[in-house]
């Protein structure tokens, strides 16, 4: 197993890759909760003029039968029009792809973006849906029974722990 790099190193790598893409007037949206923490740091580093958007995907999840019907719901906040804009969608860990699918459904409830670019702190593999990150801080394979958890918001740190 590869060693997990420090979060600040991963954020710098992602910010550099996003800058290199030279998107015109991008909007940034973080997925609650860890994705919002990561997006806040990236939004600052990139100096984006539009406010940061946040998504709660609780009502778009397809796994209520597994996690129960009492999700912690926070309001989504998209203080801009997504129509015909380039959106940078940010999450902390990409695993099965189901969170990203739910986030895309939520974004499209608000409008039709020109494009959506996915940026994740860590891609841990194990996809169940055909979803891939455009920008990744680190790729890390974990053995079964382990998960990645972003702790924060200040400071941000990533830990590997036994799956609950």
**Head-to-tail CA distance between termini:** 20 Å
> What is the percentage of strand-forming residues?
25-35%
Overall structural class, as computed from helix and strand content, comes to alpha/beta
Number of domains: 1
What name is given to the CATH topology? Answer: Rossmann fold
- Succession of helices and strands: HEHEHEHEEEE
The largest sheet, given as strand count, sense and whether it forms a barrel, is: 5 strands, parallel
Identify the strand order in the major beta sheet.
2-1-3-4-5
> Level of helix content?
25-40%
CATH architecture: 3-Layer(aba) Sandwich
Assign the CATH class: Alpha Beta
> Rounded to an integer, what's the Rg over CA atoms?
15 Å
- Overall, the morphology is globular
How many alpha or pi helices? Answer: 4
User: How many strands in all?
Assistant: 7
Could you tell me the mean pLDDT? 91
Task: Catalogue the unreliable spans.
Answer: none
What tags apply to this protein structure?
Rossmann fold, globular, 7 strands, 164 residues, two-stranded antiparallel ribbon, single chain, 26% strand, alpha/beta, 4 helices, five-stranded parallel β-sheet
Topology:
Blueprint: H1 7-21, E1 27-31, H2 34-46, E2 53-55, H3 64-67, E3 86-94, H4 98-110, E4 115-123, E5 135-139, E6 146-151, E7 157-162
Helix pairs in contact: 1-2
